[in-house]
Amino acid sequence: MIDYSKVLSSTVSEMKPSGIRKFFDLLQGRDDVVGLTVGQPDFVTPWHIREAGIDSLKDGKTYYTSNAGLEELRVEIANYLERRFSLKYDGASEVIVTVGGSEAIDLAVRACVEPGDEVIIPTPCFVCYEPCVRLAGGTPVILETKAKNNFKVDPEELRALITPKTKMLVLAYPNNPTGAIMTKEELEEIAEVIRDTNIVVLSDEIYSELTYGRKHTSFASIEGMHERTIVASGFSKSYAMTGWRMGYIAAPKILAKQMLKLHQYVIMCAPTTSQFAALEAVKNGDSDIEMMKEEYDRRRKYLLKRFAKMGIECFEPEGAFYAFPNIGKFGLSSEEFCERLLNEYKCAIVPGNAFGETGEGFARISYAYSIKHIDQALDRIEEFVKTI
Ligand SMILES: Cc1ncc(COP(=O)(O)O)c(C=O)c1O
Questions:
Q1: How far is the CA of 269 from the centre of ligand 1 (A)?
Q2: What is the best residue among 106, 109, 236 to mutate for testing ligand 1's pocket, by most ligand atoms within 8 Å of CB?
Q3: Does ligand 1 lie within 6 Å of residue 278's CB atom?
Q4: Which stretches of the chain drop beneath a pLDDT of 70?
Q5: What is the tens place of the pLDDT at every residue in 133-181?
Q6: So what's the pLDDT on residue 97?
Q7: 234 in contact with ligand 1, CB cutoff 6 A
């Protein structure tokens, strides 16, 4: 009999499945549960975008595109980045269309990180950075952001973690799971810390369109940072296009060229139908973003009001579509809190420690759901916390 322990990569075998997944698995087949767990828009992709995908199929556009993606799409992504975030990229050579922001992150890490390299990852954060770094043989170095700093990266704490082995810094604002953002001034302080180093920044800006009150500042737009920033972004969150799997990298030519080789060998090209839909989104989707953002903002305000009423402390999220309330005062671990809420009150939220140990004492609540749904879930949370 084959000995699978000899077959499998030890790096992969030792990798823990995502803590978000673990919670989703508990929900399988439970129709009685009201969940606020999912990090995806509850909107359907706007019709004109879907239609562009359908039309491309009707027209028989079922071929591979160039490895980097349709040139027209790359040029439009570059136009969009300039229009929305004052970034300057050459669509022909500095943009790669990827399979979601997920692939963009993986490309950035694998193109830069070698065994022995350290990558500074501020947590709580989205779940994929650490495993991607480990797969590349790198060492994740955790920078714990704190509620008292509104979950932003503190420049002095960053400075203290930098060693001669530091290769990359991950910045992921607006943030999943906290909803924190970093302002231009705060990003400038980060830039000062790394300006004289060779540290490259992976800036995951997938929630860049979803900010409430303050416009997103891209790290690549901070003076002198363009040359060392790889922007990873995508269509999933801003255009409600999760299932189309469309993302992109924008980076200086010399970096993009190397990432393109990885993409070429592993993916060939992102799905063609999705690329045609994305082209329509990026050209004509600004008003869709506005409409969805207004609705998220309404839900965000509602959620905060209800938490205040319940006496649950909740940091005010300024971006993405998550709230990260502090549940520490109830004396249960995040997992215990969420499991009891699920089992006793049939309401699902994600334990904060699924996003790193710093998330302990918190829970992530997605407000990418209708107000009616949110209301129902919050009623259950309210009932539950009365009992503990
Ligand atoms: C911070 C962050 N980055 C990247 C992604 C990946 O998104 P996708 O691969 O759908 O573009 C997600 C998805 O939840 C996310 O929250």
A1: 19
A2: 236
A3: no
A4: none
A5: 999 999 999 999 999 999 999 999 999 999 999 999 999 999 999 999 9
A6: 98
A7: yes
Look at residue 245 in the predicted model and tell me its pLDDT.
Answer: 98
Ligand 1 pocket member 39 (CB < 6 A): yes
pLDDT, one tens digit per residue, over 258-291 is: 999 999 999 999 999 999 999 999 999 999 999 9
Q: Which atom of ligand 1 is nearest to the CA of 235?
A: 11
Is domain 47-285 classified as CATH 3.40.640.10? Answer: yes
- Alpha-carbon gap, residue 103 to 48, rounded angstroms: 26
Interval between CA 213 and ligand 1 midpoint (Å): 22
Q: What pLDDT score was predicted for residue 5?
A: 87
Q: What is the spatial distance between Cα 158 and Cα 238, in angstroms, rounded to a whole number?
A: 30
pLDDT at residue number 27: 78
What tokens were used for 248?
């992109």
- Cβ of 176 below 6 Å from ligand 1: yes
Tell me the CA–centroid distance for residue 128 and ligand 1, in Å.
Answer: 9
Q: At a CB cut-off of 8 Å and minimum separation 6, what does 304 contact?
A: 314, 316, 323
Return the CATH class of domain 4-45+287-387.
alpha beta
Domain ranges of the chain: 4-45+287-387, 47-285
Distance 136 CA to ligand 1 centre (A): 19
Alpha-carbon span 105 to 210, nearest angstrom: 19
* pTM for the structure as a whole: 0.96
| Radius of gyration for the chain, computed over Cα atoms and rounded to the nearest angstrom | 21
Check residue 25 and give its pLDDT: 77
Closest-CA residue to 129 (of 171, 181, 164)? 171
Q: Is 172 in the pocket of ligand 1 (CB under 6 A)?
A: yes
Cα distance between residue 252 and residue 264, in whole Å: 18
CA of 7 to the centre of ligand 1 (A): 30
pLDDT digit string, tens, across residues 343-369? 999 999 999 999 999 999 999 999 999
Q: What are phi and psi of 337, to 5 degrees?
A: -60, -50
Q: Cα(59) to centroid of ligand 1, in Å?
A: 31
pLDDT at 388: 86
Q: What local confidence, expressed as pLDDT, does residue 99 receive?
A: 98
Q: How far is CA 280 from the centre of its chain?
A: 23
Rounded CA separation 324/321 (Å) = 10
